[in-house]
């Protein structure tokens, strides 16, 4: 089975760090030209470093700053990418944040910030991507599908998470967004799926792995007994973006070392 994303243009949001970086590098190594999106001036150097890694390895990519929670910026990003590269084939809706708080202390700003990036951002990017997929139509020299969207969700689309109500609510909603889009655009040959990562070693969850004690406690939640790496997610993203997964749409794929088997039930219940 050959897995190639040659001739395809991929936008990966939030690609200047963490899981997004892993996905951007994996898509580029499979042959896609990758738009390494980052949200702010502050993350420019990190995004440039990702593109350098991609080009040093023989791949193609550019950086693009855009806050995915802002409609005008998302519309402009898609216009600019289409103007420069002709179209977009793959969207990886990865940008995501946490603003954790006990529920009774959660501010409206914390709620809105998380919903704004994690959910509204995925809506805006998916809408612009689908418009572009439909404008271009199917081009068999690129892919048998008209376009592919991969939402980065979380195990918290099904595992409730005390102290993180805004985050868990955003991820639960992504499931229905993803499935609705898969249903609405299936006949147009647009594939829409979610990747649901468990604990992946990135800056978003440093406090879960940066001390031995924290790591030991984390591992009690993971039957496979290791923390995940961005590359684990990158491998799955390449498969889901490629024609090798052409019959997969409307699926949430959990990649979590078994976290969703609820290991705490292994000796009780
Ligand atoms: C969160 C991480 C967390 C993991 C498992 C992810 O979606 O962003 O902070 O470690 O879920 O709980």
UniProtKB/TrEMBL annotation:
GO BP terms in the entry: monocarboxylic acid metabolic process
InterPro entries: NAD(P)-bd_dom_sf, Sc_DH/Rdtase_CS, SDR, SDR_fam
Cited PANTHER family: 3-OXOACYL-(ACYL-CARRIER-PROTEIN) REDUCTASE, 3-OXOACYL-[ACYL-CARRIER-PROTEIN] REDUCTASE FABG
Alphabetical list of NCBIfam families matching this protein: PRK07231.1, PRK12826.1-2
Organism of origin: Chryseobacterium defluvii
Coiled-coil regions listed in the entry: none
Protein name in UniProt: Glucose 1-dehydrogenase
Similarity comment: Belongs to the short-chain dehydrogenases/reductases (SDR) family.
Superkingdom of the organism of origin: Bacteria
Cross-referenced PROSITE patterns: ADH_SHORT
